[in-house]
Write a structure and sequence with these properties.
The complex is a heterodimer of chains A (786) and B (359). Chain A is of the alpha/beta class and 786 residues long. Chain A folds into six domains: 167 residues, 3-Layer(aba) Sandwich (Rossmann fold), CATH 3.40.50.10190; 173 residues, 3-Layer(aba) Sandwich (Rossmann fold), CATH 3.40.50.300; 66 residues; 119 residues, Zinc Finger, Delta Prime, domain 3 (Up-down Bundle), CATH 1.20.272.10; 108 residues, no CATH class; 55 residues, no CATH class. Chain A is 56% helix and 6% strand. With 359 residues, chain B is an alpha/beta fold. Chain B is 54% helix and 11% strand. Chain B has a seven-stranded mixed β-sheet with strand order 2-3-4-5-6-1-7, sandwiched between helices. In chain B, strand 5, helix 5 and strand 6 form a beta-alpha-beta unit. Classes of the chains: A alpha/beta (786), B alpha/beta (359).
Chain lengths: 786, 359
């Protein structure tokens, strides 16, 4: 693409060159005169062309208006029409750069366009002319100033133009006209023949800018600068210039004030000069109250509230020079070291020359110091802070980030908060006033600010956007934007998707809800679709009410669709490359069910119970796994699922019935012996009971036991040692020991893992029992010692 | 003290109570010396693992019954650690690779290969091969099954594999063809009765024949469950009477109640209630297919024949979809909603005229 564009540019410049090389062209002639010249040459050329054309034409164009049309003429006209219908667009659309003319430079000029222009569509051309105050009419009249003729212009118009002496110009001429014509204070003539002063000066500018650019401060340059000013984004244009302009930082205890004080006193405390005051070091919670001891400051807060600006302005205010490094610079350990040495060299120079007083290093976006390229950046920054002889200001968004936390302990912590809406609003009103936009209401403005999450920069950008859209419908746009930005709560979206509001919306609008969060939304829809009382579409026969069966039918269809959506999502997640199915899933799991049951939504949108239930299922599976591991020596012929389905209920019964039926002591004894036989421990006992508890049935035998029995059970269980063929891992101890000795604990686990029990001999052989006991006790003792 | 079903589990072929012909065949295979790979399948509680135990005993003697637990940790290519527990003796290892979830292939590759590659040193005294018992083969992922199939062939000289599963439908044909498949049908009511009587004789308890019959039927021909039921009856009330209450597994009762609720009333509120209960079942790790089966069985009880066909057809469709999906409850719910529709419509057409009152 770019190649093509360049090519066209070349072509067009070549064209221009050709005209410039015209022998008629002289430097002395003023630009408009030059233009005039060119026009006349063009016209003459056109004339020749059209004359030759008319010569070729057997019939003069006047004859066209006669009522009697001879068949040849008819055919001719038909062919003309045919070619008119079939003619293509511009040859090289967009190839020419459209110049920025002065405002209303084409005022009071009337144009007629004929034929196909070289680079502009007819509408584009019309818009361009109208933009600069010109008028475009369809037919030539006495008031017409120019006929813009392109490829295949109409014969009639050319002839008429000649008759009424209207200048015939090409597209290039038009563009040049726009570029060179002065603004609206000059009254235009029928033909541009005067040499107005402004244009003459313009030429002078041109020549001066090319010839003696360095000698005089060219006005062209100034103009360019002002151009830049108007092109600037508002956010940059209205950037605070002094500290007083900062929003929400005017108070005594504001961050900026603190920063000023800290920075002002920095060289007093840390500088190399003789008046150095040793800062008192203080620790604990109040250390932030003594800013003097810090060599760096950390400004943190959400984006767009002016942290960087504040840092820069404070430096300017104190007349310090600052060096800024942000995420666009590489900030690895190595580059950071280089940086520090660089800055030191600068500082050394600075000490020699007294004119520039003091330096500050601003490290912007420190939380962006991450990844492979910036490895060790934060550590180096910390050491840099320790060594530094200049103050460092660090700026970040996320104060709670892991990396920042280590940095924060070396920094004077200044937290920026979002300004209030009122504070932002005042500033926005000034900006709008300066931009001559008055018709935005205050409440709309407030909403805009809120929708931007009180981010000043974003608010300004939004306002800027609307102003370029045309100020008249800013309110409408504002409302639209807000609608888009505020509806971001999934629960609200869920409600919305069931409501009648969405009935008329397009399919893509409906599926947008799904794409808000494609994992959460289907679950929310599934959770809540039953709460919706469907309405019949109003276009249907209104008398018919929805029967219960109809409702069920709709629900069934919705549920079907949701189930299909689940199948779809499973396909997406099981095969990595089938993300293209996502739109289908959106239809299945969000759009279709919502359309089936669309209607009155009762109550609140609930959060999906799927997550909670799934984590419960996972936990239970884990616990079951654990129990299965414990009993697997005794019940080798069983897997987890069979244990769950068959054993669990009965094991529970077998454990608890003796407690209930028999006398206390005997029952407890029986229960514990059963536990021991199956190598189950007290925790397993508890989980077995938990797994046997079902909601809303209340069949929990353990709850029916009296507390005496329960406590007796616990006491008796704890009294005796219980042999297990597996190592009981105390998680708390494990964590401690792991923290202390790291690798060693791993080795131990390996030992524990291969404890062997000989089932057959163990009952008879006392020696083995002892040996085994020792083996089991060993690790626990070890960990206790540690 | 241990539960009766463990206490009276047969340890040798001679102690078995039913399928004796098959047992004789197995014994002959072991005695012959040429021992193939086995694929033993059948419903749960039919005695698959008992047969395996007997096989191992016949192969290695008592040594195969001194068991130990071993923990193995493997690292997946994505640096995730997979822990797996095996039970084994000097002669065999029992492993359930599906414990490792989607990483079961690693288990197959690493664990089974290492075992299979080590040869027995003393061939004269022992068999020349070790046995690996893999349970829940039908739960293995396709990748793992493919990994297994080559291993089975390659190391056939040093190890034999006994596969154990409930159904062969999800075992790939390549594996099925490499094994001697042995199907164990669930014991008949009479066979279960016989076992129950035998056990009560050992315990010195009188078992009324009616109670034995009822237990056998309630257990759905699952011998393990029948024994557990019997013992629970015995702990609750000791001379056993014929009209004694038999405790069923809690989840079965809960599931049946859920299905009953759906059958009673067909409203959106009921669907919500049923959803809650289904979530509870899933949270208790009850497998989805068992829930589905239970639901259908209970729902069919109050349907006439025309409806039965329809409902079963629907159930099959939704069960298939359930296997393709991942969130079971969604599919249960879709099934219940569909059932409600069909049922209600059927009822309305049956009793036209009075349907207005019901609305």
């Amino acid at each position: 693409m770019t190649d093509i564009r360049n090519f066209f540019k070349k072509v067009s410049t070549a064209n221009k060159k050709r005209t410039r090389d015209d022998p008629v062209d002289h430097e002395e002639i003023t630009s408009t005169a030059k233009l005039e010249q060119k026009l006349s040459t063009k016209i003459s050329k056109e004339k020749v062309v059209s004359q030759t054309k008319t010569n070729i034409n057997t019939t003069p164009p006047k004859k066209m208006k006669t009522k009697e049309i001879d068949p040849i003429e008819k055919k001719k006209r038909f062919e003309n029409y045919k070619s008119f219908i079939n003619r293509g667009g511009p040859d090289a659309p967009g190839s020419k750069t459209i110049p920025d003319g002065e405002k209303n430079c084409l005022k009071n000029l009337t144009f007629v366009i004929s034929g196909i222009l070289e680079s502009l569509e007819r509408d584009e051309c019309k818009n361009l002319i109208e933009k600069y105050g010109g008028r475009v009419t369809v037919a030539l009249s006495g008031k017409t100033n120019y006929l813009i003729a392109g490829r295949e212009p109409s014969e009639g118009k050319l002839n008429k133009a000649r008759a009424t002496k209207v200048a015939v110009i090409s597209e290039d001429d038009l563009l040049e006209l726009i570029q060179t014509r002065p603004g609206d204070e000059v009254t235009p003539k029928k033909k541009v023949s005067t040499t107005s002063e402004s244009s003459s000066t313009q030429l002078k500018r041109k020549s001066s800018s090319t010839v003696s650019k360095s000698t005089d401060p060219s006005p062209m340059k100034i103009q360019k600068q002002s151009d830049d000013e108007s092109n600037l984004l508002w956010a940059d244009k209205y950037k605070p210039q002094t500290i007083k302009n900062l929003i929400g930082q005017q108070g005594e205890k504001s961050c900026v004030q603190k920063l000023i004080i800290w920075l002002r006193d920095w060289y007093k405390h840390h500088g190399v000069s003789d008046e150095k005051v040793k800062a008192k070091s203080s620790f604990g919670f109040n250390r932030n109250e003594n800013p003097a001891m810090f060599k760096a400051a950390l400004l943190s807060g959400p984006p767009g509230i002016g942290k960087t600006t504040a840092a820069q302005l404070v430096c300017q205010h104190l007349n310090y020079e600052y060096i800024e490094k942000n995420a666009s610079d590489q900030r690895s350990k190595k580059s950071m070291t280089n940086l520090s040495s660089d800055t030191y060299s600068v500082v050394n120079l600075a000490n020699k020359s007294a004119t520039i007083s003091k330096y500050v290093l601003i490290m912007d976006e420190v939380d962006g110091v991450a990844g492979n390229e910036d490895r060790g950046g934060v550590q180096e920054l910390i050491s840099l802070i320790k060594r530094s002889r200049i103050p460092i200001i660090c700026i970040c968004n996320d104060r709670q980030h892991k990396k920042i936390r280590s940095l924060a302990s070396y920094c004077y912590d200044l937290r920026f908060y979002r300004p209030t809406i009122v504070q932002i609003r005042a500033r926005m009103l000034t900006i709008l006033h300066r931009e001559n936009i008055e018709n935005i209401k205050e409440d709309v403005l407030d909403e805009i600010i809120q929708s931007c999450n009180q981010d000043i920069r974003q608010t300004i950008h939004s306002l800027n956007l609307w102003s370029t859209h045309g100020t008249t419908n800013a309110n409408k746009l504002a409302a639209k934007m807000i609608e888009k930005t505020t509806n971001t709560n999934p629960f609200e979206l869920c409600r919305l998707s069931f409501s009648d509001e969405l009935r008329e919306k397009s399919l893509s609008d409906k599926s947008d809800i799904f794409f808000y969060d494609y994992q959460l939304m289907p679950l929310l829809i599934q959770e809540n679709y039953l709460q919706c009382q469907p309405h019949l579409a109003t276009s249907n026969n209104q008398k018919r009410t929805l029967t219960n069966l109809d409702h069920l039918n709709l629900i069934s269809k919705a549920a079907d669709s949701i189930a299909l959506g689940d199948v779809c999502s499973q396909m997406i997640f099981s095969k990595n490359d089938s993300w293209s199915l996502l739109p289908y899933q959106s239809i299945f799991s969000t759009v279709a069910p919502c359309s089936y049951v669309r209607g009155h939504f009762r109550g609140m949108a609930n959060f999906s119970s799927y997550f909670g239930q799934r984590s419960r299922a996972n936990k239970n599976a884990r616990v079951l796994n654990e129990i299965e591991k414990h009993i697997c020596l005794k019940v080798a012929s069983i897997n987890k699922q069979e244990f769950n389905l068959d054993y669990l209920t009965y094991l529970n019964q077998a454990l608890l019935t003796p407690l209930k039926m028999a006398s206390q002591d005997k029952g407890v004894e029986q229960c514990i012996s059963l536990l021991d036989d199956y190598y189950l421990n007290r925790d397993d006992f508890q989980t077995i009971i938990e797994l046997n508890t079902w909601s809303k049935t209340g069949r929990n035998l353990y709850e029916q036991l009296d507390t005496q029995t329960k406590s007796l059970l616990t006491r008796t269980y704890n009294k005796t040692n219980h042999r297990t063929p597996y190592a009981i891992v105390d998680i708390k101890k494990l964590k401690k020991s792991k923290g202390l000795m790291g690798e060693e604990s791993d080795e131990e686990q390996g030992e524990e893992a291969s404890i062997i029990i000989d089932e057959n001999t163990i009952e008879e052989d006392a020696m083995i029992k002892i040996a085994k006991n020792r083996e089991i006790n060993k690790p626990t003792k070890k960990s206790r010692n540690k | 003290m241990s539960l009766w079903c463990d206490k009276y589990q047969p340890k040798t072929f001679n102690e078995l109570d039913y399928r004796l012909e098959q047992a004789a065949l197995l014994q002959a295979v072991v005695a012959d010396g040429d021992f193939p790979h086995f694929l033993i399948y059948g419903p749960s509680g039919s005695g698959k693992k008992t047969r395996i135990k007997c096989l191992l005993h016949a192969l290695y003697g008592d040594g195969a019954q001194s068991l130990r637990i071993e923990n193995h940790v493997y690292e997946t290519p994505s640096r995730k650690k997979v822990e797996i527990t095996t039970i084994g003796s000097n002669y065999h290892v029992q492993v359930n690779p599906s414990d490792a979830g989607i990483y079961d292939r690693i288990v197959i590759q690493e664990l089974i290969k290492t075992i299979a590659q080590t040869k027995q040193i003393n061939i004269n005294e022992q068999r020349s091969f070790k046995v690996i018992v893999i349970i829940e083969v039908d739960k293995l992922t396709r990748d793992a099954q493919h990994a297994l199939r080559r291993t089975m062939e390659k190391y056939v000289s040093s190890c034999r594999i006994i596969l154990c599963c409930n159904s062969t439908s999800r075992v790939i044909p390549a594996i099925r063809s490499r094994c001697l498949a042995i199907r164990l049908a669930a014991p008949t009511i009479d066979e279960i009765n016989g076992v129950l009587q035998k056990v009560t004789n050992f315990e010195g308890i009188q078992l009324p024949i009616d109670l034995a019959n009822r237990i056998s039927e309630k257990s759905q021909r699952n011998l393990r469950r029948a024994l557990l039921m019997l013992q629970t009856c015995a702990t609750q009330k000791l001379p056993l009477t014929k009209d004694q209450q038999i405790t069923e597994p809690d989840w079965e009762v809960y599931l049946r109640d859920t299905a009953r609720m759906v059958g009673e009333e067909q409203t959106p509120q009921r669907i919500l209630q049923a959803r809650e209960r289904l979530y509870e079942l899933v949270a208790h790790c009850i497998p989805a297919e068992i829930i589905f089966k239970g639901l259908l069985e209970e729902l069919l009880t109050n349907c006439d024949n025309v409806l039965k066909v329809k409902i079963t057809h629907i159930a099959a469709e939704y069960e298939h979809r359930l296997r393709q999906g991942s969130k079971e409850v969604f599919h249960f719910e879709a099934f219940i909603a569909k059932f409600m529709c069909v049922y209600k419509e059927h009822m309305l057409t049956e009793t036209t005229g009075i349907d207005e009152e019901f609305e």
